[in-house]
Design goal:
two-stranded antiparallel sheet, Rossmann fold, globular
Length: about 140
């Protein structure tokens, strides 16, 4: 097994992919929920360190300013990406996360695609197209395990 990080912009399909992997029996953590993120878009570093120390078979999903501090603890960093209009459409219509519905948040997503996604790309081991069917994406991630 392996520790895998799935990262990317809001609306790329990280949570959907993580849900598919959980249905397939994999240990998963979505850092958008359950207190993994602290104010300022930072992961709780103590909690993340403990998770990665205790489990060598976990798929983590999320994007945070300090995630790069953990890259050496993951066997694979997967960037899930999609064109900005796809991200906006998904973020504005999803029901599991309110972020992305307002015009200001959509402007942030556009800005992050330009400013943040290139940084994520540099840290990623593999990039996957988030428009692919979720089952196909999950097959690829399982192949990395």
């Amino acid at each position: 097994m392996a520790r895998i990080l799935i990262t990317g912009m809001s609306g790329a399909g990280k949570s959907t992919l993580l849900g598919e992997l959980a249905l397939r029996g994999h240990r998963t953590v979505d850092t958008d929920y359950d207190g993994w993120e602290l104010p300022g878009a930072l992961w709780d570093e103590d909690r993340m360190s403990e998770l990665l120390t205790r489990h060598d078979d976990v798929v983590v999903s999320g994007t945070a300013e300090n995630q790069g501090r953990f890259y050496d603890r993951f066997e694979q960093v997967v960037l899930l990406s999609a064109p900005v209009e796809v991200l906006i459409e998904r973020a504005s219509t999803r029901t599991n996360n309110p972020y992305g519905r307002s015009a200001d948040q959509q402007a942030e997503i556009r800005e992050y695609v330009v400013e943040v996604e290139p940084l994520l790309r540099r840290g990623a081991d593999i990039q996957l197209d988030g428009r692919r069917p979720v089952a196909d994406l999950a097959d690829v991630v399982e192949g990395l395990m």
